[in-house]
Design brief:
alpha/beta, nine-stranded mixed beta sheet, 20% helix, binds zinc ion
């Protein structure tokens, strides 16, 4: 079925499989099936709408509105919300029922939900707080221990300055890396160890500057090789020569010169049409261990999923999801945590929830509608407690009312988002100018990139990690690319000495953007394999310089 997007006016397909899944995911309340309508927007606009509610990396200093303690938060101090330190937010010191209201059938639902969202206190950061240990400076992260400034990351230990890490130990400056240890600036790697500057590699160890490598050890500046040891620039060199070259890479100038050579070398090799390993019957990119996944990106362990982005733990039978931990039967959810089942249109559902509709910031709850900030509750509507019978009678009536206003089946509109558009990751994937944002009636915040002034003595980094003194920690460094100030923490210095790679010359925020730019955009193109001519769906845009191969041709081409 062809449809026109209500937001961007592009034509888009609603597939039979989409409609089947919507039918399967339609909630049943008190024996009444609340059928989910066909989407009115194209998949991109739907994703943009979900992303526009998520601020991963912009953090600010402010105070807790209950205790007055200084905290950091992803909600700016000038934003009109009550923000509590997570310790307070997860405690009995406040009661979300205080903000309850009665559903008003004479007004649109989202207007009423927005009033509730505006009033209910919010946690300073979005984490799996109750499952974390010593992780006060992490955001959209959970089940971590002793981590600092990691985002969209779960089940890690001793990791710093990274984005989208899963099950990693002592990794720094990495992007979307899984089950790895002692890795630095690795992007889209799985099960790697003791390595730096790797991209799209799996099962590699003690290596530097590799792309598309599998099962390699002690290799430098190689692309598209498997099960090799002591290779440099795609040739065998022997142990001694490797050792000599590796020892030089403690120096910043040597790393930059190696990077320059490697950038050229890697262009000589074909790329696989999609990034990922251990997938079966999938269409999308950057997928690991997925089965029957359609138009899914940046995810692991998906099963029967459609339009899922950043799913980082097992997800089954889900559609239109942005960022989710483990769950089943979910539709149109943005940021769903652990053990989330049978929920639709939920925004920041933290942990252990089922049968929730249009809820935000709730946890350990089930069977609620349009609620904000509840914990251990059931049968609530707009934070008001009802009996099971009242709930089952009222919800189908509200849904009927929402069908009339055109709201049923739509996720939270961007206009009621609690972050400004340019604070959210929607701006990373769908960048808009201030004027464009304002014209759509969305929020814009002028000070997002404002460079805060750190206190301390300014310093410059020595060329080699060997000459870097312990007292560099606490001094102020200036990002070579953005001019933003940053600091080095002692654990970071220890990591760099252990791995023998130089400290970064750029701030985390610049590295995050650079790493994002190293990856393909989430758009699939129809192309033909550059070797055999087979039809492929790939995120490599036609006209790009790389040779793109289908799976069999690619596997055959590896050395
Ligand atoms: Zn659209
Ligand atoms: Zn081919």
């Amino acid at each position: 079925m062809q449809q026109t997007c209500a937001q961007c006016s592009a034509a888009f397909s609603v597939h039979n499989e989409d409609l089947q899944m919507l039918d399967e995911l339609s909630p049943v309340i008190g024996g009444v099936k609340l059928s989910l309508p066909s989407p009115t927007m194209c998949p991109d606009c739907r994703l943009q709408r979900r992303q526009a509610h998520v601020n991963h990396v912009n953090l600010y200093e402010r105070t807790c509105d209950l205790s007055g303690a200084p905290i950091i938060s992803n909600t700016h101090p000038s934003a009109p919300y009550t923000v509590y330190d997570q310790e307070v937010w997860y405690s009995d010191k406040w009661d979300a029922h205080k903000y309850q209201r009665k559903y008003d059938f004479s007004r649109p639902f989202f207007e009423q939900l927005k009033e509730l969202i505006d009033e209910v206190p919010r946690p300073n950061l979005m984490t799996g707080y109750e499952f974390d240990e010593n992780c006060d400076y992490t955001n959209y992260a959970g089940k971590n221990k002793d981590c600092y400034l990691i985002f969209d990351s779960d089940e890690n230990r001793d990791c710093f300055y990274s984005y989208s890490l899963n099950h990693c130990v002592n990794c720094v400056g990495c992007y979307r890396t899984r089950k790895s240890e002692l890795c630095y600036e690795c992007v889209d790697c799985v099960k790697c160890y003791g390595s730096a500057y790797l991209q799209d590699c799996d099962n590699c160890a003690d290596s530097v500057f590799l792309k598309n490598c599998t099962g390699c050890k002690n290799c430098l500046m190689c692309s598209n090789i498997k099960n090799k040891e002591y290779w440099v620039e795609n040739k065998p060199v022997g142990k001694e020569e490797f050792g000599k070259l590796r020892a030089m890479l403690g120096s910043h100038s040597a790393v930059e010169s190696a990077r320059g050579r490697f950038e050229k070398l890697k262009l000589e090799f074909p790329q696989k049409y999609m990034h990922g390993v251990q997938n079966e019957d999938v269409e999308g990119d950057y997928l690991v261990n997925c089965k029957n996944a359609f138009n899914c990106f940046d995810s692991e362990d998906l099963w029967d999923c459609r339009y899922v982005y950043q799913g980082f733990m097992p997800l089954k039978t889900c559609m239109d999801i942005h960022e989710c931990g483990e769950g089943e039967r979910l539709y149109e959810c943005s940021v769903a945590g652990y053990e989330i089942n049978s929920c639709c249109f939920c925004n920041h559902t933290l942990a252990n929830m089922s049968d929730m509709l249009y809820c935000s910031l709730c946890h350990h709850s089930n069977h609620c509608f349009g609620c904000v900030g509840l914990r251990r509750k059931k049968y609530c509507i707009l934070n008001k407690q009802h009996s099971k019978e009242e709930y089952e009678e009222l919800v189908p009536k509200i849904v009927e009312h929402m069908r009339g206003t055109g709201e049923w089946g739509e996720f939270f509109p961007v206009s009621i988002a609690t972050y400004a558009y340019n604070e959210t990751i929607a701006q990373d994937y769908y960048p808009l100018t201030k004027d464009e944002v304002k014209r759509r009636g969305w929020q814009w915040f002028d000070d997002v990139e404002k460079k805060e002034q750190k206190t301390g003595e300014p310093a410059e980094l020595p060329d080699s990690i060997d000459d870097t003194p312990e007292d560099i920690c606490g001094k102020i460094l200036t990002c070579e690319e953005s001019g933003r100030q940053y600091k080095v923490i002692p654990q970071e210095l220890e990591f760099h000495k252990k791995l023998h790679v130089p400290l970064p010359r750029t701030s985390f925020f610049k590295r995050y953007r650079n790493q994002l730019a190293m990856r393909n955009k989430r758009i699939l193109h129809n192309r033909k394999c550059d070797k055999c001519g087979a039809a492929i769906r790939t995120s490599y845009q036609p006209g790009r310089p790389e040779q793109i191969y289908c799976e069999p041709c690619y596997q055959e081409s590896l050395s």
